[in-house]
Design a protein that fits this description.
By secondary structure, the protein is mostly helical. It contains 8 helices and no strands.
């Protein structure tokens, strides 16, 4: 049996979560809504009164643009739970990804031949309409 996590180590994960949340400018309520948990649950995670499950760690990691193991690395997060974390998580939503690609294409279009630029723009107009639906 593994030793019980030290309070300071558990709190370190909670503090990390709080700092990352504040870095995004989210309130506890906003983070809770994105994770599908209560604001009280977020408060308990940040204060170290509870330890997040693998699902919550994975969702938070995606919001914080990091891999799940990076979020819990160096904390007392239980090794059995670490072993069940996915190696990677989606760091960007489909909308964010498409907007990044659009931005790249817009920069490229500045020097593209006019007929090709028109074709690319029409393709993006169609893609953006679909994305908006």
């Amino acid at each position: 049996m593994s030793p019980r996590p030290q309070a300071a180590e558990v709190a370190a994960l909670g503090l990390r979560i709080a700092m990352l949340r504040m870095g995004l400018g989210f309130t506890q309520q906003e983070l809770a809504e994105r994770l599908g948990i209560s604001r009280v649950a977020v408060s308990n995670l940040e204060s170290g009164r509870s330890i997040p499950g693998e699902r919550t760690v994975t969702l938070m990691a995606g919001l914080f643009r990091m891999e799940p193991f990076e979020l819990v690395q160096g904390t007392a997060y239980p090794q059995a739970k670490v072993d069940r974390l996915p190696l990677v998580t989606a760091k960007y939503t489909e909308v964010e990804l498409q907007l990044a690609l659009l931005e790249r294409d817009l920069r490229w279009l500045e020097s593209a031949p006019a007929e090709l630029a028109i074709e690319v723009i029409e393709g993006w107009q169609k893609a953006l309409r679909l994305l908006a639906e």
